[in-house]
Amino acid sequence: MFLQLTLSGIAQGAIYALIALSMTIVYRATTIVNFGHGDFVMAGAFVVYVLVIYLGLPYVPAAVLAMGILFVVGVGVSRGFIDPIKAGPHIGFAMMSISLGYVLRGGARALWGREVFPMPQVFDMEPIFIGDLVVTGDALFIVAIVAVLLAVLFLIFYRTTVGTVIQAVYQSERGATLVGVNVRAFHETMWGAGLAIGAMGGILIAPISLLHPDLGATFLIRGFAAMTLGGFGSLGGAVAGGLLLGVGEQYFGAYINTALIDITAYLIIIAVLVIRPSGLFGKAVTIRM
Amino acid sequence: MSETTTPSVLSMTWWRWICYLIPIVALVIPFFANEYLLWVVNAILVYILVTVGFNIVIGNLGQLAFASTAFFGIGAYTTAILMVYIGIPYALAIVASAVAGGLAGFLASVTALRGIRLYYLAIITLAFGELMRWVYLHGDKVTSGSDGLLMPQSSFFGVTLDSEVTKFYVFLLLTVLVVKATSNLMQSRIGRAFVAIRDNEASTASLGIHTARYIVLAFVWSGAVVGIAGAMYAALIERVFPESFGLTEVIVHFGMVLVGGTGSIVGSVIGAITLTTLPELFRQFPGMDELFFGIVIVLVLLFLPKGLVSLLRRISPVFNERYYRD
Questions:
Q1: By residue range, what is the domain housing residue B88?
Q2: pLDDT, tens digit, for every residue of A14-68?
Q3: Between chains, do B291 and A217 touch, taking CB under 8 Å as contact?
Q4: Domain-embedded: residue B2
Q5: Is B309 a member of any domain?
Q6: Residue A94 to residue B64, Cβ atoms within 8 A
Q7: For chain A, how many structural domains are there in total?
Q8: Has residue B227 been placed in a domain?
Q9: β-strand A133-135 against B155-156: which pairing, if any?
């Protein structure tokens, strides 16, 4: 029982980790928290759905194409909506991103109504039995993909110039501009990358859960919970927070009350921010007056 | 030449009197409007209070808090629960809702005081609102879950709220009182302190202003005002259920504040009027609310960041909030 819960928690948590990581990328690169991120994740899942069901594409090319589309969308968001309000107060970014999210959510609802969509099974594999433990193909697939993706991302962030540039822009946009970084293009790329990776989360979860326009809100809160738990802005923290959240939800649901699965994320956010705002791995950045 | 240099057509005092005249002229609305139209007008009155209350925290204090939905729901549920189970009169229930909303505001302010600001505050208040909705859904014994609570027949100092007409007069009275009180507060030393904190908290503190106290006060006042709006909402829709206080409500409140103009009471009123009326036109289509509010906010942020009230400011400087200058 315990092991089974842990296992499904990890599979679920891998998705949260991916979403939290993609939010962290946007945040680290642009210091903007994307409050519409969940809806972009939802949009990614819907794009795959459209490509697979309506256009008959196989899942893998559809997934790649969907990520590409979301990358372009991310660049567009940065260029068309975030850049023009740069001079305004920081609060405007939050409002802009949350509104864009609502546009997507409303758009999805207007197009597909109040239905829920089942995606066809992608990984049609016999479950593996290890003693009492059941390992489904989906879970394996998700964890494997996420692990590979994370490895690649961390290599990029910590072993390449891209990582250095991210750090430079995060610390000082002005300074980065002075040493020849095209900050604007960099922001656009990072918005694109963030949305594409976030979409990946939606794409992976699409075959194992039902699609509906309100999925975005769930993702957003889960992503926030993972980020806060791991420490806001910390890449490793986002991953650890996501996994912990996934496992925690399963434990809470099984051992205390199933209704708690829905609010584990909220409780974690509130508890962490009140008790230890810097999270598990983050650096303290609180302001006190 | 440009509009800003033209002298205002009417003097400041005249504009002020016109503002005071609006609620008096509004008294005749029930003689013209049908039941449905009057329902919309009542909804506008409810949302005026929501927007005025929310604007205090977001516009004047400049804190990114999403807690207005929570305050709104807490106000509505307080009224509904007290009236259904204890049978207290509506007037008392409104006071209770204001207190409950104020308490919720106090809770929210405590997080702000603990150094949880900007994004953190937004996230924690968002979680708070969603948590409250979960409580309404799962507190079956008291809130009867997703079915919601049916409001009993309410009367306000002997006036039975059984038609939209009587509701209108009661709501109008409440709205005018609360808006005027808030307006006075915002023009006092206290309102000035809110704006000072928004513009520069450190330098405000250095002037010997106890910033923490004012932050608590702003949140409590905001919570109480939105709580009263919640009590009115309960009487308006007659059945209080969790879905009324979901995430769509967040964007509705946001939209009203932004479209009207942040930090402006006149703006709040304008925002509430426009954004309560317009969505009525396409109520029946799924997703249109979200789409509409989302697009409207995006457009306002891009092209009219000071909201509709900034158009009025071009006509007369009276629409400049006294302590809200750029």
A1: 32-245
A2: 889 989 989 988 888 888 888 889 999 999 988 988 888 888 888 888 889 999 9
A3: no
A4: no
A5: no
A6: yes
A7: 1
A8: yes
A9: unpaired
Q: pTM, whole model, 2 decimals?
A: 0.86
Q: Counting every residue, how long is chain A?
A: 289
Rounded distance between C-alpha atoms, residue B186 and residue B189, angstroms: 8
| Distance from the first to the final alpha carbon of chain B | 22
Looking at the domain assignment, is residue A77 inside a domain? yes
Could you give the 3-state DSSP secondary structure of residue A210?
Answer: strand
Confidence band for B323, pLDDT divided at 50, 70 and 90: low
Checking if the pLDDT of B321 tops 70, the result is: no
Beta strands in chain B (DSSP E): 149-150, 155-156, 159-160, 239-240
Is-contact B179 B265, C-beta < 8 A? yes
Q: Domain count of chain B? A: 1
A221 occurs within a structural domain: no
**In 3-state terms, what secondary structure has residue A211?**
strand
CB pairs under 8 A between A and B: 142
Which DSSP symbol is given to A119? Answer: P
Residue for token pair 């546009």: A103
Nearest CB to A91 within list B62, B124, B292: B62
Tell me, what DSSP letter sits at residue B91? H
Contact in structure between A231 and A283 (CB atoms under 8 Å): yes
Give B273-286 pLDDT, tens digit per residue: 988 888 888 777 77
Quote the domain boundaries for residue A18.
2-213
B147 occurs within a structural domain: yes
Mutate: best of A266, A275, A287, partner B, most B CBs <10 A = A266
Looking at CA atoms only, how far is residue B24 from chain A in angstroms? Answer: 35
Distance, CA of B307 to CA of B291 (rounded, Å): 19
Whether A268 maps to a domain, the answer reads no
Q: Do A43 and A66 touch, CB atoms closer than 8 A?
A: no
